[in-house]
Amino acid sequence: MNSIELKQTLQNLRNLTAENEVVEFKEAKNGYDFNKLGKYFSALSNEANLKGKPYAWLVFGVENKKHHIVGSQFRPQRKDLDILKSEIANKTTNRITFIEIHELNEPEGRVVMFQIPAAPKGFPIAFDGHYYGRDDEELSPLNLEEIERIRAQATTEDWSATIIPDATIEDLDEEAIALARKNFKNKFPEKASEVDAWDDATFLNKAKITIKGKITRTAIILLGKEESEHFINPAEAKIRWLLKDANGNDKDYAIIGCPMILAVDKVYAKIRNLKYRYIKDGTLFPDEVNQYEPYSIREALNNCIAHQDYTKHGRINVVEMDDQLIFTNLGSFIPGSVEKVVKEDAPEEHYRNRFLASAMFNLKMVDTAGGGIKKIFNFQRERFFPMPDYDFSGGKVKVTISGKILDIEYARLLARNRDLTLEEIMILDKVQKKHELTEFEEKHLKGNKLIEGRKPNYYIGIKVAQKTGQKAAYSKNKAFDKSYYLDLIEKAIREHKSLERNEIDELLWNKLPEWMDDKQKKNKIGNLLSELRMKERIENTGSFSKPKWSLKKTDKKV
In whole angstroms, what is the distance from residue 103 CA to residue 438 CA? Predict the structure, then answer.
């Protein structure tokens, strides 16, 4: 939303005569309890589902009686609001989080507007293991009847299986049907001779694309002619490919529609997939590989088609950067976590588009028997590339596949430690990307001496560093004892009579751990100087704004 739309939305919400199940106002003038915020997230998400709304609103900085703006200082820094998205996701079902957190600086004060997505069909949203709802304006546990009503949506509704009365087999693409036959025979070679004897209507029924000869939405999505897309309006069956340069500027684009079985190859042909060269450890000769494993591109794209929430009326996007591919589809990630999918390596119990997923399995487009996502991770592991990134915020699934080595030391770690499990590699991948670790992940890596350091600035542990030739990198991350820095400052001041702050910064800067950013290094040096001053070892003989540090007169040596 732009600022004008956001102001109008706020005005519309304030014009409500009273709060309702999908709108909640809170003053939150100076802050708000995180756990209570999480309970409201669960309640409003579930109520939006039950009321058939796409999202709900939690508004801070507005009192709940007359809806006057009073202003809120809840997390005034934008970065802290953005962190809240992952904090909420860590405690909700399927890691559902805010669509967006909006800020408006009105004349009367700052307003924070939390846009909360409706719970996905069939999946009530819990916070910290408990389901919440609204009883009139009161926060309360979601009652059993409401929980079951949401859960029943998964078994009673399958958008992709709906029959389109006015559509006929003439609305399907002949080339698409021919490819579907070929893929079906490859998937089920024992039926190949039978398939050749079937007419198109029989084949479509047997492949579970149509139902008793009736054209389904699945049939239009996978095999429909381009001009037949109107049968699924207002939904779209389109993929937008966008090419960007290193600065993020658009260079080229294409929008490809039905039939999706042909669209996958058309999008794949657009992606450049250039050669990537890097020097393997222990050799002077470069290794040459494609930036992306072809299977990974097709699997990610077909997953977008199979799991897109078509009721949200959006497109699938494929963004190609110089060194990464980004795939997005609308809807929540129903398995909940990628770690769960990789670890269990088994088919899901629930699918958003069960009929569509089944048809794509029969046409060898997806592997509903499980393992597709795990294969992508293993392909990245084999080429020593970073693991795929999954982001479930904003009501969509975003998958980023890297096409180059980000950290050569991490690549060496993968190359020399074949005994590491895929789960351990996924967690170490988070370390190299500076992503937040869970308490279990921290405990596991520390217990196995794979990482050291303090949260959130972990680095590769000494055991791994010694095995992978990262001894120097390890020592750069490992801080010296505090006494080393204190002695160094005193010795330098004694040699030069006095030092200004910038000179002390220069003295210590490259000796501090590499994981520290500039601000952390500044603070560290400031703390060291304060400690020496409090111990009366040094004194400021300059000014407050331009300090000059000298040895305390009683401690000076001739």
Answer: 29
